[in-house]
Design goal:
about 550 residues; alpha+beta; three-stranded mixed sheet; 17 helices; 14 strands; about 35% helix; binds adenosine monophosphate; binds magnesium ion
C-alpha cells in the first residue's frame, strides 16, 4: 500500500516533530471548503472542510507506543504540543481538516446521508515504510454531518475504541489504529440507556489512523444521488491509492477490485469469528472499503459461546448483528456495495453477481481451515466438518467460555488418543460458568466430542498441534469487564489500567503469568453490571 505519485501536495507543519501532513484526499477529490453549512444535505461533494472545536483543557492521557514508532513521531517527549495537536486545539498551518460525506444502510434500512458527524480528518502522513496514513480525530466537534449530534465523544467510549483497536491489531486482525487518547477538559451529556437519565461525562478525543477511512456508505451516497462522476472519482482514488497492485482503474479492474473487497471482508469475518469478536453495529457506514475493522461502538467479546449473542442493547430483539450472523451480514453489506458501484459497470449486474456468488464458498473454505487450526488439525479434511459441527452443538449445552475452551483444549496431551475423556473434561472444566456440576447428558456429550477430537489429532505431532492452536486461539482478549475496569479508573484520573491492558493485549497469544488474572472467566460481579454484558451506541 505504497503512496502513489500524485499531484504535489502541500505540506502542513504540525509543530509535532516528524509530523508533516499532506492533503492527498482533499486535493484529489471534490469537496466543500469553509465556511461549512451546518446540518443540511450536501450534493456532489465527497468531503467538507471543518474546523475542530477548541477544547478548554486538552490533556494527553495515553498513546500507542507502537504507532508512535511506526509513524516516526515523538509524542512522549512533547505531551503538551501533542495534546493540542491531537485534539484539534491547534490545526497545522496549511492543512485542510475535513469530514467525509457518506450514507448507509442501518439495521437493514437505507438511512440516507450520514457522514462523519464527529470525526475530523487532519490529513495524511507517511510512515517509515512509505505507507500513507490518514489521521482522524473522533469527538472533535460538530461537522456539517452531525445532524442532531453534538460532535463530541465521552471518555468511556473513547477508552473502549482506543484499547480495542490496538488489541485487534495485535491479534493479527486488520483494523484502524489508535494513536493518542486525550481529554478535552469539557463535559458531555449522555443518556446511556436512553431512559431519560442524562449524565455529564468527561469529553475525550481519540486520534485514530488508517490507510483509508472510506466506507461502503461513501459509495452508496453518491449512487443514491446519481452522482456518477463523484462515485467514479472516489473509486479511482481508492484503487490508485490503496489497491495499486490492481493497475489503472477500468472495467476489468473494477471487477477485480470488488473481488478483493469481497475476499478481504470474508477474511475479516473469519477473523472475528475466530477470536469471538462481535462488532454489533455492522451497518454499511461501518464497513471499511479496505476490509478493516472500523468504528468500535457497543462491540463485545463472546464469553459464553452463543451464536445469538450480541452486546448491543438496541439489537436485543432482532439480533441482526449477533455473533453467528456476522459472516452473512458481511455478504448482505457487499450486496449493498455492489448496488452502489453498479454505474461503474454501465449498470451491467453480471460482473458483480459473478463475484458475489463466490462469497459463500470462499468464506466456508477459510472458516473450515480456521476451525481446523483452532482444533490443532494440521491436515484438514472435508470429513472433519462433522467434528466441527458437533463441537458447536456441544459448547451450547452449558455456558462455556469461548476463549478459555480452546486454550484449555490445547493443554490436553492427546498423544495417541489414549486419554480418558473424563480426564480431558477436567482440563477444560475451567471454561464452564455454571458453578453446579454438569448434568449427565452434558457430560456424556462433552466426553464423546473430546474422545472424537483426541482420536482425530492422535497422529499429529503434539508440539505442532499445540503451537498451531496457541497461535490461532488467543489467551487474552479485551473482555468487556476489563475495558470497564480501565474506564472506571480513567474516570477517576488513573490511567494505569489502560496502560496495563495495552501491555497484556500486546501479546495476546503468549503465556504471561504475571497477567494470569486476565485469562480467566468473567468474574461474577461483572455479569449484571451495565456496560459489561449490555452496551448501547451512546458514546
Ligand atoms: P455510529 O453508530 O457511531 O456508527 O454513528 C452513526 C452516525 O451517527 C455517523 O454518521 C456518526 O458520525 C454519527 N454520530 C454518532 N455520534 C455522534 C455525535 N455525538 N455527534 C454527531 N454525530 C454523531
Ligand atoms: Mg460509524
Amino acid at each position: 500500500m505504497k503512496t502513489q505519485p500524485q499531484q504535489p501536495a502541500k505540506d502542513a507543519d504540525s509543530g509535532i516533530q516528524g509530523l508533516n501532513l499532506t492533503d492527498a484526499f482533499t486535493q484529489a477529490l471534490p469537496g466543500k471548503p469553509l465556511p461549512a453549512d451546518c446540518n443540511h444535505q450536501q450534493e456532489h461533494i465527497i468531503w467538507s472542510e471543518v474546523q475542530p472545536a477548541v477544547p478548554s483543557a486538552p490533556t494527553l492521557i495515553a498513546w500507542s507506543a507502537d504507532m508512535e514508532k511506526r509513524l516516526g513521531l515523538n509524542i512522549q517527549g512533547t505531551p503538551d504540543a501533542s495534546a493540542r495537536f491531537f485534539t484539534g486545539s491547534e490545526v497545522a498551518a496549511g492543512s485542510t481538516p475535513y469530514a467525509m460525506r457518506y450514507g448507509g444502510h442501518q439495521f437493514g434500512n437505507w438511512a440516507g446521508q450520514l457522514g462523519d458527524g464527529r470525526a475530523i480528518a487532519l490529513g495524511e502522513i507517511q510512515d517509515r515504510e512509505g505507507q500513507h496514513w490518514t489521521l482522524q480525530l473522533k469527538g472533535a466537534g460538530q461537522t456539517p454531518y452531525s445532524r442532531q449530534g453534538d460532535g463530541f465523544a465521552v471518555l468511556r467510549s473513547s477508552v473502549r475504541e482506543y484499547l480495542c483497536s490496538e488489541a485487534m491489531h495485535n491479534l493479527g486482525i486488520p483494523t484502524t489504529r489508535s494513536l493518542t487518547l486525550c481529554l478535552t477538559g469539557d463535559s458531555v451529556d449522555r443518556d446511556v440507556f436512553y431512559d431519560g437519565n442524562v449524565q455529564a461525562e468527561q469529553g475525550a478525543i481519540l486520534c485514530r489512523a488508517a490507510h483509508s477511512f472510506v466506507r461502503f456508505g461513501n459509495f452508496e451516497i453518491h449512487a443514491a444521488h446519481h452522482e456518477h462522476d463523484e462515485l467514479k472519482a472516489l473509486a479511482d482514488h481508492v484503487i490508485t491509492r490503496d489497491y495499486p497492485h490492481l493497475g489503472k482503474p477500468g472495467p476489468d479492474v473494477y471487477q477485480q477490485w470488488f473481488q478483493e473487497i469481497l475476499q478481504r471482508t470474508a477474511q475479516l469475518m473469519a477473523h472475528w469469528q475466530r477470536v469471538g469478536f462481535v462488532h454489533a453495529v455492522m451497518n454499511t457506514d461501518n464497513m471499511s472499503i479496505l476490509g478493516h475493522t472500523i468504528d468500535y461502538g457497543p462491540y463485545g467479546w463472546l464469553e459464553e459461546y452463543d451464536p445469538r449473542w450480541t452486546p448491543n442493547f438496541v439489537d436485543r430483539q432482532n439480533r441482526r448483528y449477533s455473533f453467528g450472523n456476522q459472516p452473512q451480514i458481511g455478504l448482505w453489506n457487499l450486496y449493498r456495495l455492489a448496488n452502489a458501484i453498479l454505474p461503474l459497470f454501465d449498470n451491467n449486474t453480471k460482473p458483480l453477481e459473478e463475484v458475489l456468488e463466490t462469497y459463500n464458498d470462499y468464506y466456508d473454505n477459510i472458516w473450515n481451515n480456521t476451525v481446523a487450526a483452532k482444533l490443532g488439525i494440521t491436515d484438514p479434511q472435508p470429513a472433519d466438518k462433522a467434528l466441527y459441527n458437533s463441537l458447536w452443538e456441544t459448547l451450547e449445552l452449558t455456558a462455556t467460555d469461548y476463549t478459555l475452551f480452546f486454550r484449555k483444549l490445547a493443554q490436553i496431551e492427546a498423544a495417541g488418543g489414549q486419554e480418558k475423556p473424563t480426564d480431558m473434561l477436567a482440563v477444560i472444566s475451567d471454561a464452564f460458568y455454571d458453578s453446579k456440576p454438569l448434568d449427565d447428558t452434558t457430560i456424556e456429550a462433552f466426553n464423546t466430542w473430546l474422545g472424537q477430537w483426541a482420536a482425530r489429532v492422535a497422529d499429529i505431532d503434539p508440539s505442532k498441534r499445540t503451537k498451531l492452536m496457541n497461535s490461532t486461539n488467543p489467551k487474552y482478549v479485551l473482555r468487556n469487564y476489563m475495558a470497564l475496569q480501565a474506564i472506571d479508573a480513567a474516570e477517576q484520573g488513573d490511567y494505569s489500567v489502560i496502560e496495563e491492558l495495552m501491555a497484556v493485549l500486546q501479546n495476546p497469544y503468549s503465556e504471561q503469568p504475571e497477567f494470569e488474572k486476565y485469562a480467566s472467566r468473567r468474574p461474577e460481579w461483572a455479569t449484571q453490571r451495565p456496560g459489561c454484558t449490555m452496551l448501547t451506541c451512546s458514546s
